[in-house]
Specification:
This protein folds into two domains: 74 residues, Alpha-Beta Plaits (2-Layer Sandwich); 59 residues, Alpha-Beta Plaits (2-Layer Sandwich). 21% of the residues lie in helices and 31% in strands. The protein has a four-stranded antiparallel sheet with strand order 2-3-1-4. A two-stranded antiparallel sheet has the order 5-8. Helix 1 runs antiparallel to helix 2. The chain starts with a strand and ends in a 10-residue tail after the last helix. It binds iron/sulfur cluster (SF4) (2 copies).
Protein backbone atom coordinates (compact mmCIF):
# COMPACT_ATOMS: atom_id res chain seq x y z
CA UNK A 1 0.00 0.00 0.00
CA UNK A 2 1.47 3.35 -1.08
CA UNK A 3 0.26 6.89 -0.72
CA UNK A 4 0.46 10.08 -2.75
CA UNK A 5 -0.63 13.56 -1.80
CA UNK A 6 -2.29 15.38 -4.66
CA UNK A 7 -3.78 18.82 -5.13
CA UNK A 8 -7.06 18.66 -7.05
CA UNK A 9 -8.42 21.78 -8.72
CA UNK A 10 -12.06 21.75 -9.77
CA UNK A 11 -13.29 24.44 -12.10
CA UNK A 12 -16.87 25.63 -11.79
CA UNK A 13 -18.25 23.27 -14.44
CA UNK A 14 -17.21 20.15 -12.51
CA UNK A 15 -16.85 21.23 -8.90
CA UNK A 16 -20.19 19.78 -7.80
CA UNK A 17 -19.79 16.41 -9.51
CA UNK A 18 -19.10 13.41 -7.25
CA UNK A 19 -15.81 12.32 -8.83
CA UNK A 20 -13.90 11.86 -5.57
CA UNK A 21 -16.54 9.46 -4.33
CA UNK A 22 -15.84 7.31 -7.38
CA UNK A 23 -12.18 6.95 -6.41
CA UNK A 24 -13.39 4.77 -3.56
CA UNK A 25 -16.30 3.12 -5.35
CA UNK A 26 -14.68 2.32 -8.71
CA UNK A 27 -10.99 2.09 -7.79
CA UNK A 28 -11.15 0.95 -4.17
CA UNK A 29 -8.74 3.73 -3.21
CA UNK A 30 -8.61 5.08 0.32
CA UNK A 31 -8.62 8.86 0.42
CA UNK A 32 -8.07 11.34 3.18
CA UNK A 33 -8.95 15.02 2.73
CA UNK A 34 -6.07 17.06 4.17
CA UNK A 35 -7.31 20.53 3.20
CA UNK A 36 -10.19 21.90 1.17
CA UNK A 37 -11.38 25.26 0.01
CA UNK A 38 -14.44 26.06 -2.07
CA UNK A 39 -15.06 29.35 -3.83
CA UNK A 40 -18.79 28.93 -4.61
CA UNK A 41 -19.52 28.63 -8.34
CA UNK A 42 -15.88 29.44 -9.16
CA UNK A 43 -13.36 26.87 -8.04
CA UNK A 44 -12.75 24.09 -5.55
CA UNK A 45 -9.33 22.98 -4.30
CA UNK A 46 -8.77 19.83 -2.34
CA UNK A 47 -5.54 18.46 -0.99
CA UNK A 48 -6.01 14.72 -0.91
CA UNK A 49 -3.97 11.80 0.33
CA UNK A 50 -4.58 8.76 -1.88
CA UNK A 51 -3.74 5.31 -0.58
CA UNK A 52 -3.55 2.10 -2.56
CA UNK A 53 -1.29 0.20 -4.97
CA UNK A 54 0.76 2.54 -7.18
CA UNK A 55 -0.88 1.45 -10.42
CA UNK A 56 -4.38 1.91 -9.00
CA UNK A 57 -3.48 5.38 -7.68
CA UNK A 58 -2.27 6.24 -11.19
CA UNK A 59 -5.51 4.94 -12.67
CA UNK A 60 -7.49 7.03 -10.20
CA UNK A 61 -5.48 10.14 -11.11
CA UNK A 62 -6.09 9.48 -14.82
CA UNK A 63 -9.79 9.10 -14.09
CA UNK A 64 -9.80 12.51 -12.40
CA UNK A 65 -7.90 14.10 -15.28
CA UNK A 66 -10.29 12.52 -17.79
CA UNK A 67 -13.06 14.29 -15.88
CA UNK A 68 -11.28 17.64 -16.23
CA UNK A 69 -9.91 17.83 -12.71
CA UNK A 70 -6.46 19.44 -12.60
CA UNK A 71 -4.20 17.11 -10.62
CA UNK A 72 -0.85 18.21 -9.21
CA UNK A 73 1.45 15.81 -7.36
CA UNK A 74 2.64 17.46 -4.20
CA UNK A 75 5.99 15.69 -4.39
CA UNK A 76 6.68 17.64 -7.57
CA UNK A 77 5.71 20.95 -5.98
CA UNK A 78 7.37 20.85 -2.58
CA UNK A 79 10.98 19.91 -2.09
CA UNK A 80 14.10 20.75 -0.15
CA UNK A 81 17.31 22.02 -1.68
CA UNK A 82 19.57 19.67 0.23
CA UNK A 83 22.68 21.79 -0.35
CA UNK A 84 20.99 24.80 1.27
CA UNK A 85 19.73 23.04 4.39
CA UNK A 86 22.03 23.37 7.39
CA UNK A 87 19.71 21.35 9.65
CA UNK A 88 19.19 24.26 11.98
CA UNK A 89 15.75 22.91 12.95
CA UNK A 90 13.93 26.26 12.67
CA UNK A 91 11.23 24.69 10.50
CA UNK A 92 10.57 21.61 12.61
CA UNK A 93 8.37 23.07 15.32
CA UNK A 94 6.19 24.89 12.79
CA UNK A 95 5.44 21.94 10.59
CA UNK A 96 1.87 20.88 11.42
CA UNK A 97 2.22 17.32 10.20
CA UNK A 98 5.74 16.35 11.36
CA UNK A 99 6.85 16.15 7.73
CA UNK A 100 9.99 17.86 9.06
CA UNK A 101 11.52 16.14 12.06
CA UNK A 102 14.83 15.83 13.87
CA UNK A 103 16.40 12.41 13.66
CA UNK A 104 18.76 11.03 16.25
CA UNK A 105 21.61 10.51 16.77
CA UNK A 106 23.01 12.98 14.22
CA UNK A 107 20.27 15.63 14.81
CA UNK A 108 19.68 15.96 11.07
CA UNK A 109 16.34 17.31 9.94
CA UNK A 110 14.50 14.84 7.74
CA UNK A 111 11.83 15.84 5.22
CA UNK A 112 9.06 13.35 4.37
CA UNK A 113 7.07 14.70 1.46
CA UNK A 114 4.32 12.10 1.98
CA UNK A 115 3.39 13.86 5.22
CA UNK A 116 3.54 17.37 3.76
CA UNK A 117 0.29 19.31 3.31
CA UNK A 118 1.91 22.28 1.54
CA UNK A 119 1.02 24.79 4.21
CA UNK A 120 4.06 26.91 3.37
CA UNK A 121 5.23 27.54 6.92
CA UNK A 122 8.69 26.05 6.45
CA UNK A 123 9.30 28.17 3.37
CA UNK A 124 8.47 31.27 5.36
CA UNK A 125 10.80 30.54 8.25
CA UNK A 126 13.77 28.85 6.60
CA UNK A 127 16.63 31.37 6.79
CA UNK A 128 18.51 29.64 3.98
CA UNK A 129 15.77 29.29 1.38
CA UNK A 130 16.06 25.54 1.46
CA UNK A 131 12.36 24.73 1.23
CA UNK A 132 10.94 25.15 -2.28
CA UNK A 133 8.75 26.28 -4.07
CA UNK A 134 7.35 28.97 -1.89
CA UNK A 135 4.89 30.31 -4.47
CA UNK A 136 3.40 26.86 -4.81
CA UNK A 137 3.35 26.22 -1.10
CA UNK A 138 0.00 27.92 -0.87
CA UNK A 139 -2.05 25.55 -3.01
CA UNK A 140 -5.12 27.63 -2.37
CA UNK A 141 -3.75 30.88 -3.73
CA UNK A 142 -6.39 32.20 -6.09
CA UNK A 143 -5.54 32.31 -9.76
CA UNK A 144 -2.40 30.18 -9.46
CA UNK A 145 -3.70 27.68 -11.97
CA UNK A 146 -5.48 29.00 -15.01
CA UNK A 147 -6.43 25.78 -16.78
S1 LIG B 1 14.81 25.85 8.49
FE1 LIG B 1 15.76 25.50 6.50
S2 LIG B 1 17.93 25.15 6.94
FE2 LIG B 1 16.81 24.91 8.88
S3 LIG B 1 16.39 22.69 9.01
FE3 LIG B 1 14.60 23.65 8.05
S4 LIG B 1 14.99 23.49 5.84
FE4 LIG B 1 16.94 23.14 6.86
S1 LIG C 1 4.93 22.91 3.70
FE1 LIG C 1 4.00 22.75 5.77
S2 LIG C 1 3.50 20.57 5.99
FE2 LIG C 1 4.97 20.72 4.28
S3 LIG C 1 6.97 20.41 5.24
FE3 LIG C 1 6.61 22.63 5.18
S4 LIG C 1 5.70 23.13 7.20
FE4 LIG C 1 5.52 20.90 6.91
Amino acid sequence: MNSKNVLLIFKSNIMYKPVIYRLAKDFDLVFNILEAKILPRREGRILLELRGPDEIIDQGIKFLQDHHVVVELLSEKVWREEDNCVHCGACVGLCPTAALSVHEPDRKVAFEVTKCVACGMCGLVCPFGAMKDITLFDPFAEGRVNS
